[in-house]
Each structure stands twice: as structure tokens, then as C-alpha cells.
């Protein structure tokens, strides 16, 4: 049995840190600090964190070394009843599997090899990166930002060339780069490392492409009461296309002026909507709109002779009472009646009558869908989503029945308006009211928006806006 050289120092350090954390919380040291003091404190805490990460990386590397033997029974992971190093690190350190995997990647890049003959320590794969880690200059994020891009060039680029490139990037991390810039953060270090990897591996595009093609994936997870998780890996050009769609939908929207509303000096009064969605929520809604556009484009392969169609089923009793649940084909989790109404508003309804034992006794015809001629006319009239300030173009919008079909509303241009996916889906929550006045849509702002809550004619159609200006 060997003597534990770290037990007492680690115990002392844990006690000191615990006392410091408790004192900081009780004395409200961070809250009482000036901005300059708080910035200095944040930097000092981060340095301590990186130093602790250095020990954590080395400890993980040693666990890896003791678990790499070909004899499974002789592995440390087997002795402690774990499947692999990730499982062991995850359980002991209480981190996620992703963090455990990152620690192992950092360890591979920085742990020194051990001579099989003498048992002495040899150089690490990236000595300068290891030195910076031990000095507390970089932590896990910085290590991986430097080494991951360079490791991807192996074996096309020699080890010495990769090591020399890492030395240059480490200098940037220390604030000792050729341009004298301050110490670089992990994101900037990654840019430097990627630049070096491209410069060294000028013929590496094709291998990267093959690797990207193999790893491409998109997987829908198991449905949960709060949604369906999605994970995968997009090809760079696919991600760029999706980002372009996000940018187009999420670009800052300007409020548009209503020429019919002017102040005493004749100045136009802008209408503006409020949008408190997070960027992630906006990207979800843009993705939903893109799926809707794709499904209705007529360019996708058919299923059973028809365009891909989302089928939602709900009983007539639940729909009339606005209670219970609806069910979307292909999803195990039920959806609300509100969602069913939203989907049906812009789609078709087919009534199927069954007996209590399930026997089908009547199949009605499909009803309630705006045809392409009506859609073109409505798009010409409205221009885009009619909620002020939205700016979503007509091609990305759905058509909303102002008076619901179930309440006698007709599928007619005098009863249909353009709404983007978000404003259509959450119209009952965001507070905007819509009505038709002699075939022309009008909106009224929600109570929490401004003070002028009168009905206004709205459009982004250039022709209609020009005509209004000519009348003023």
C-alpha cells in the first residue's frame, strides 16, 4: 500500500475553499464589490478554476492509463464496477457524460507518456499546451480549442508541425502573441487553431468532407410531455442553409407605418408589436415555418399518393367543449385542443363518424382549405403577416380563418388573413385581435401595448400602401 500524498493537501484545500464560499455568501462580498473589484474577483476565481481543472484532467488521464490494459479484469474501471472511463468519471465527479468525454480528450492531449522501459515520464503530445494548463492559463475549453482542430489534421500533417502550431496558439493564450494582443479566450484560440490547421492541411478538405458525410445525422428523440428532443450532426452547407433561414426569419423587424393614422402634424404613427421570445424559441418557430412551407410546396415525395400531411385526430365532443386532447399521427404524446385548432385552421378537415365499438359508419369529404387562387389574392391584399412589426413575407405565412369554420366562418378571402406560424399558433395568448371590415383585415393591439387600442387597417402590400399615401 502506498502513502496517499494528496489526501491531506486536498482536504485542507477543500476546507479553505468551503470556508471562502461560505464567507463570500454570508458577507455578500461579490454584491458589495465595485465593478473593477468584481471583474478582478471573477478573473481570480476563473484562474483557480483552471488550476483545479488541470488536476482533474491529470487525474482523469491517470484513470485512463490504468484502464487501457488489454486484460479487462486488470482495469481500474473493472475494479470499481464501471463500464468504462466515462462511466467512472461521471459517477465519481458528478459531471455529465459529455463533460467526462471532454476531460478525456483534454487528457489525451496533455498527459505525458510513460516509458515502458524506465517508467520515467516522457513528453506530452503538446508540451506547450500542458505547460499552459499547469500554469492555469487554459482550462478544458482552451485545451480543446487548441488541440482538437490540430489533431484532426493527423496523419496528413506531421506531429512536429502540429506541435509548433500549438506553440504559436499557446502564445496567444498567454498574451504573448506576435501582435501583442491580450490573452485570448477559448473561442478566439479555436479560430487561431483552425486557421493553422487549414494552412498546414491544404489538401485536407476531401478527408474532412468524407468524415462529415459519415457523421451526418438527424434524430428525433422520444416524445415527452414538454416536447420532442432533437439531436444530430448537420453537414456544413446544410447548417449554413438552415442558418440562412433563421437569419431571414429572425432579422430585426422594423415597425411599418399605417398611413391612415397620423398625428396633428401629419406625421405617420408607427404600429409596433412586442416579441419576448428567446432566440432559441424564434429559431424553433422559423424551423416550424420552414417545414410548413416545404410540406405545402408540392415538391416533396408523396405518401400514399398525397403530399406529406400532418394528420391530427380529435373527437367532435372534445372539439366542441374545448376539453380533452387531440392526437398527431407519428407522435406518442397528446396535443391540446388549441394546437388541433391551429393545425386545422390552415388545413383540411374530414369528418369520420364511428360507433362506440369503433365501426366506421360515415366518411365525409375534405373541407375547409384555401386554394392557391385564394392564397394569391390574400397575399396580394395583406403583403405578409398582418401583425404589425412582424414582417414575415407571404410565402412563409399560413392563412387564418378570422371567424372559425366551426362557428360558421367560410373559407373565403373575406374571412382569411395571413399570419406567420408564431402569431397563428399563439394568437389567443399574445392578445392581438383581428376582424374583417368589408373584406379588409383590421387589428387591435393588446391591452398591454401602448394606449391607442382602436381598430386599424393593416397591410404590407406595396400597392395598398401607395394608394393610401396618395389619398392622404
TrEMBL record:
Keywords: Endonuclease, Hydrolase, Nuclease
Lineage, uppermost ranks: Bacteria, Bacillati, Actinomycetota, Actinomycetes, Micrococcales
Native source species: Microbacterium memoriense
InterPro entries, alphabetized: DUF222, HNH_nuc
Entry keyword annotation includes 4Fe-4S: no
GO MF assignments: endonuclease activity
A Pfam family per the record: DUF222
Tagged with keyword Hydrolase: yes
Protein name (Swiss-Prot/TrEMBL): HNH endonuclease
SMART domains per record: HNHc (SM00507)
Gene3D superfamilies, A to Z: 1.10.30.50
Domain HNH nuclease: 373-425
Amino acid at each position: 500500500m502506498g502513502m496517499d500524498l494528496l489526501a491531506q493537501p486536498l482536504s485542507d484545500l477543500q476546507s479553505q475553499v468551503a470556508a471562502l464560499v461560505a464567507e463570500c455568501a454570508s458577507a455578500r462580498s461579490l454584491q458589495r464589490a465595485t465593478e473593477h473589484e468584481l471583474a478582478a474577483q471573477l478573473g481570480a476565481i476563473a484562474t483557480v478554476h483552471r488550476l483545479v481543472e488541470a488536476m482533474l484532467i491529470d487525474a482523469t488521464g491517470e484513470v485512463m492509463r490504468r484502464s487501457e490494459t488489454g486484460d479487462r479484469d486488470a482495469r481500474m474501471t473493472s475494479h470499481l464496477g464501471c463500464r468504462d472511463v466515462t462511466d467512472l468519471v461521471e459517477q465519481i465527479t458528478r459531471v455529465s457524460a459529455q463533460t467526462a468525454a471532454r476531460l478525456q480528450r483534454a487528457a489525451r492531449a496533455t498527459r505525458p507518456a510513460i516509458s515502458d522501459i524506465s517508467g520515467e515520464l516522457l513528453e506530452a503530445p503538446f508540451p506547450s499546451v500542458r505547460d499552459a494548463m499547469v500554469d492555469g492559463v487554459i482550462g478544458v475549453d482552451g485545451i480543446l480549442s487548441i488541440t482538437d482542430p490540430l489533431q484532426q489534421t493527423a496523419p496528413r500533417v506531421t506531429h512536429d508541425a502540429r506541435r509548433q502550431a500549438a506553440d504559436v496558439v499557446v502564445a496567444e493564450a498567454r498574451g504573448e502573441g506576435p501582435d501583442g494582443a491580450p490573452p485570448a479566450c477559448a473561442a478566439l484560440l479555436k479560430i487561431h487553431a483552425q486557421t493553422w490547421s487549414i494552412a498546414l492541411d491544404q489538401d485536407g478538405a476531401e478527408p474532412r468532407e468524407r468524415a462529415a458525410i459519415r457523421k451526418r445525422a438527424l434524430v428525433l428523440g422520444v416524445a415527452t410531455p414538454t416536447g420532442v428532443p432533437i439531436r444530430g450532426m448537420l453537414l456544413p452547407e446544410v447548417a449554413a442553409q438552415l442558418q440562412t433561414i433563421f437569419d431571414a426569419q429572425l432579422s430585426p423587424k422594423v415597425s411599418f407605418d399605417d398611413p391612415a393614422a397620423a398625428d396633428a402634424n401629419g406625421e405617420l404613427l408607427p404600429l409596433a408589436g412586442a416579441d419576448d421570445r428567446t432566440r432559441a424559441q424564434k429559431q424553433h418557430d422559423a424551423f416550424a415555418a420552414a417545414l410548413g412551407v416545404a410540406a405545402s410546396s408540392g415538391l416533396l415525395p408523396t405518401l400514399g399518393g398525397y403530399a406529406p400531411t400532418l394528420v391530427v385526430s380529435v373527437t367532435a365532443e372534445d372539439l366542441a367543449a374545448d376539453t380533452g386532447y387531440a392526437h398527431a399521427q407519428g407522435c406518442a404524446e397528446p396535443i391540446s385542443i388549441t394546437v388541433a385548432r391551429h393545425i386545422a385552421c390552415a388545413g383540411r378537415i374530414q369528418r369520420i363518424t364511428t360507433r362506440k365499438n369503433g365501426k366506421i359508419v360515415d366518411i365525409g369529404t375534405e373541407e375547409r382549405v384555401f386554394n392557391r387562387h385564394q392564397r394569391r389574392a390574400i397575399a396580394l391584399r395583406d403583403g405578409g403577416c398582418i401583425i404589425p412589426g412582424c414582417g414575415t413575407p407571404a410565402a412563409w405565412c399560413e392563412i387564418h380563418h378570422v371567424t372559425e369554420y366551426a362557428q360558421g366562418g367560410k373559407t373565403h378571402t373575406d374571412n382569411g388573413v395571413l399570419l406567420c406560424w408564431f402569431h397563428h399558433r399563439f394568437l389567443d395568448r399574445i392578445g392581438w385581435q383581428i376582424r374583417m371590415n368589408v373584406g379588409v383585415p383590421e387589428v387591435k393591439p393588446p391591452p398591454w401595448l401602448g394606449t391607442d387600442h382602436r381598430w386599424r387597417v393593416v397591410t404590407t402590400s406595396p400597392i395598398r400602401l401607395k394608394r393610401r399615401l396618395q389619398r392622404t
